[in-house]
Amino acid sequence: MKNYLICIFLLMSHLAVAQNKNEKAILEILSRQINAWNQGNTQNFMIGYWESDSLMFIGKSGITFSHRETLARYQKNYPDKATMGILKFDILRMKPLGKKNYFVVGKWHLTRPEKGDLEGHFTLIFEKMNGIWVIIADHSS
Question: Is 12 in a helix, a strand, or coil?
Fold first, then answer.
């Protein structure tokens, strides 16, 4: 019985370490996105997204598919640094959906002195592909 409990403890410890490692990697991606956005660089902001026609972005104007179309949407809606403002994320929840997927819920805020601030919430689904976490679905409102 003692050996059984030790095995359970070791397994739980291993899972917790793996979860923390995955969450840290995802938070690093989001941090890089914030930095890119705050530098006015939508191209680099998109690095956290899956480069695929299957990427799905859902916003107030509907669903956009593909990395290219999502980038074009960002560039159209945020054409300059004043419109982009300064981005901040507050992560409200991170939950693993298995070994290769994570569900992330957060709040975004744009500080825009010239245009007026904006804020809303987002849900992201990350998938680990070839050892790298990428956003495969984004619902921002």
Answer: helix
